[in-house]
Specification:
- The chain is of the alpha+beta class.
- The chain has a single domain (2-88), classed as Alpha-Beta Plaits (2-Layer Sandwich), CATH 3.30.70.
- It contains 3 helices and 4 strands, in the order βαββαβα.
- The chain is globular, with a radius of gyration of 16 Å.
- One of its GO terms (cellular component) is cytosol.
- Residues 6-76 form the Transcription regulator AsnC/Lrp ligand binding domain.
- It comes from Promicromonospora thailandica.
Length: 93
């Protein structure tokens, strides 16, 4: 499974509508309204790279109100347990 994080810049007046439309796209598992330089963050999960292009380029970018996107492809997922183990390496309890 390929996971991508899509940063979405949207027209301010359409942020809620853009978020809902993006959330309804097949392959998008979650959409977050966030603070900072970007307006929305979408989590995309698809089996293959070719499908990622279809979701982002063919669907997300064509939602009315989307001004720009930046896609980050995840290499590896770390759970809280993984991170706790990594930071505990070499430490004696």
């Amino acid at each position: 499974m390929l996971t991508a994080i899509v940063l979405i810049d949207a027209e301010t007046s359409r942020i809620p509508e853009v978020a809902q439309e993006v959330a309804n796209i097949d392959g998008v598992s979650e959409v977050f309204s966030v603070t900072g330089k970007t307006d929305l963050v979408a989590i995309v999960r698809v089996p293959e790279h070719e499908q990622l292009s279809g979701v982002v380029s063919d669907r997300v970018n064509k939602v009315a109100g989307v001004q720009n996107t930046e896609t980050l492809i995840a290499f590896r997922a770390y759970s809280k347990a993984d991170l706790e183990q990594a930071f505990a390496l070499g430490l004696d309890d």
